Amino acid sequence: MPTMTSCSNTASVGRLQRGRGPANPHPAPPGGGFFALLFCLFFAPVCLAAAPPLEPIPARTVLVNLPETGVSAAPTSQSADALAAEVRHQLKAARQQGDPRFLGYAQRALDQWPTARLTSELRLLRGSLRQSLHQFDGAEADLKAVLQAQRSGPLRSQAWLTLASIRLVRGDYAGSRQACEAFADDYPGLIAASCFAQVDARTGQARAAYERLSRAVHQSRSTRDPVSRAWAEGTLASLAAQLGLDAAQTHWRRVLVMDPGDLYSRALYADWLLQQHQPEAALALTQGYEQVDSLAVLKAIALKRSQQDDRDFEQRLAQRFAEARWRGNLLHKRDYARYLLDVGQQPEAAFHYASLNWQSQREPLDTRLLLRAASAAGETSARQDLVDWLADNHQSDARYPETTP
Amino acid sequence: MTRWLAGLTLLFAMAGPALAHKASDGFVYLDTSTEPSQLRIDVALRDLALVVPLDANGDRQVTSDELNRARGDITRYLEQGVQLQAGSRNCRLVGQDWGLSRHSDGPYAALRYQVRCPADAAPDQLRYDLLFEVDSLHRGLIQQTDGDQEQLAVLGPDDHALSLDAAGRSWFSVFADFLQQGIWHLLLGFDHLLFLLVLILPATLARHQSTRDPKILRSRLWELAGIVSSFTVAHSLTLGMTVLGLVHPPSGPVEIIIALSIAVTAINLLFPVLGHRTWKIAFGFGLVHGFGFASVLEELTHGTSERVLALAGFNLGVEAGQLLILAVIFPLLYAISRYRLYQRAAVPAIALVVTVISLYWAAQRFVALPMMS
Q1: If you count Cβ atoms within 10 Å of the first and of the last residue's Cβ in chain B, which end, N or C, has fewer?
Q2: Global pTM value
């Protein structure tokens, strides 16, 4: 049975007043629709289901631009190769546009294929899909199955590298290092060097890792492999930010020149700019990326810090989180926690979501967010657990200097 | 191999965690507090375009003309994908208006329907099957509003049916619920209590002195039984007829007549304009009170498919409440009826007070009537 949640209505949006009934358990929302929306977002349990108004269809207008999806309702790929190409296309679109709908199309394409006939390539793709959906256990299982079946070759290398990435995000540094080693055996180079550098940086050797990777990049300047270069630059940027070096900015700029669609680096860079008290620059960087949750939240923070107002944007963002909370499962807890902490001034709720997020993701951003939320909410023992965890891993970060072991 | 691997590498290892905008959701708003229930379905235009030929000229844009032309296809698609049932029988969706709505990720087509279920029952089951054939992460976000309760649910490909609230209850719990409602309504609905009081006053008057005479007591009890039974038979008759949809008097005038009926019965105690046969008065006005009970029951039975069961429970509840009151009041009044003061002062005073109250109610209800224009 689907889970049902109950809440008193009307708290949602003032416009919808439904006569009779017991007194509203929540005080009346102050002001107009936007405040009602914010109000509900922070105070009511799961409210905010009020339907947006129905508007007439305007005459002779372009209502929406459709993205190229490559999706059809008819049964799709007949061969494993064709299916793999289709799924790869969807995953690529999901990454480039930050749009989870493409993950849904990929999942649908894989779902209609019999599990018994999954090839290693399809399993690898399913592992990547599950990684994107934060289904890390399922992802690791798929990748291990690929490693079982493939004793050599590019699929095996790819499986190791993806495994290294998942384990890094989960904070399994020993497991991640082991996967990096296995990857490096088959495929030495800048990507392998970046793989090691990330693990080293999170286990107490950030400075050495940064210098080693910088040298490796310098030595391989002659190689004409832009993908490896962008990969290494992105890693250098993260490490520089962790070390508190201004060079982080230079590295991120290089990444974004090579690949403006690298949303991950863009978000890290915008966040770094906010920490450097440059909200205007962060605004410029997030401009046009409002559809991506992480960048939209950073934009909202930048707006607030530069004392600007964009009522329409803020309302849209509040509505997006309200709908995501209704939906429940695919909610990006990191972004929502950040939003609650820095836009909504709701430290307790922020702490709740930040801890849920930290259960599955332990990147520096996740850790920093939980530390800040715990401090703001006065959760000293949770904060201490986190500080202990950082000390156990010898992890230090210029972005949370107070915890340096 | 280098190129292939590198391309894949960057694609996957770095993808994942940080990003996302909204996934695909369809919104279903079901209001079961009205008769018939109202349904609204919102589906994103870009989602609809995957399953309905929206972009007729293939230019990757949807214009308002294209949307208007696709209305038939859209309705067909939605109606096969969202199904409501009452008692395992399909309800019919009757299209109302449609338009655009704006959710956080862009424009949606929004369609409104009336839900017509067999035997005018309220829907008790909802199935949602939109878009799963192209997007496994699509979800149906369902909101059911019933009076002041709101239920939210999320339906997905593995979990696409929802039992609606107030449905699926055992017949006993429905019956017990309405039995209780009937008792409460009689005890807390002041006007029926006052009417009952003025009705039974004549039966308490022991005209021939000694209240201890068993013969007299027996005749009083017979009279009481006659009055109460004829009131019961009359209001059950009209209550049943209204709830089963045979008649449908407007509730405003009914409420006024109920108030007036109390006044007239009270006045009749002092000046017997309607005669001494109280059981006849009880029957005549009982018919009107039945309409009054019916309008209460109508409100309560929204969202219930077991109307007959509800009717039976409610009616028995009203009778039980009635007997409860009589069991307390009648012995009391009968005991004091041998005092002259009771007959000379108390009864007229009661009659007067009740008359004033009920006339005041009648005036109040008259003022509250919607103005005819």
Answers
A1: C
A2: 0.67
Average pLDDT, chain B: 82
Find, in chain A, the residue whose alpha carbon is nearest to that of B13. A162
For residue A313, the chain B residues in CB contact (below 8 A) are none
φ, ψ of residue B29 to 5 degrees: the values are -110, 115
Q: Which residues contact A376 (CB under 8 A, 6 or more apart)?
A: A341, A347, A350, A351
A92, A161, A332 ranked by CB distance to B20: nearest: A332
Residue in A20, A64, A100 nearest the CB of B20: A100
CB within 8 Å: B152 and A228? no
> Side-chain half-sphere of A149: how many Cα atoms within 13 Å?
16
Statement: residue A20 has pLDDT above 60: no
Model pLDDT, residue A401: 73
A54:B99 CB<8 A: yes
Q: Which of B2, B14, B21, B101 is the best substitution to test chain A (most A C-beta atoms within 10 A)?
A: B21
Question: What pLDDT is recorded for position B78?
Answer: 95
Q: Tell me: pLDDT of A4 over 90.
A: no
- Per-residue pLDDT tens over the stretch A39-70: 444 444 344 557 889 999 998 899 998 888 87
Residue of A nearest to B42 (CA): A51
B107 Cα distance to chain centroid: 35
Would you call B180 an interface residue with chain A, using a CB distance cutoff of 8 Å? no
Cβ–Cβ contact B63 with A under 8 A: yes
**Contacts by B208-213 with C-beta closer than 8 Å and gap 24+?**
B209/B338, B210/B338, B211/B334, B211/B335, B211/B337, B211/B338
Q: Please report, rounded to a whole number, the percentage of residues in chain A having pLDDT higher than 70.
A: 84
CB contact under 8 Å between B104 and A53, yes or no, is: no
Rounded CA-CA distance A357/B16 in Å is 14
Contacts A299 to B, Cβ<8 Å:
none
Cβ pair B142, B126 in contact under 8 A: yes
Q: Does B119 touch chain A (CB under 8 A)?
A: no
Q: Check if the beta carbon of residue A187 is closer than 8 Å to that of residue B37.
A: no
Which residues are registered as beta bridge partners of B40? B29, B112
Using the beta-carbon criterion (under 8 Å), do A61 and B153 form an inter-chain contact? no
Domain assignments of chain B as residue spans, ordered by start: 22-163, 171-368
Protein fold of B171-368: Growth Hormone; Chain: A; (1.20.1250)
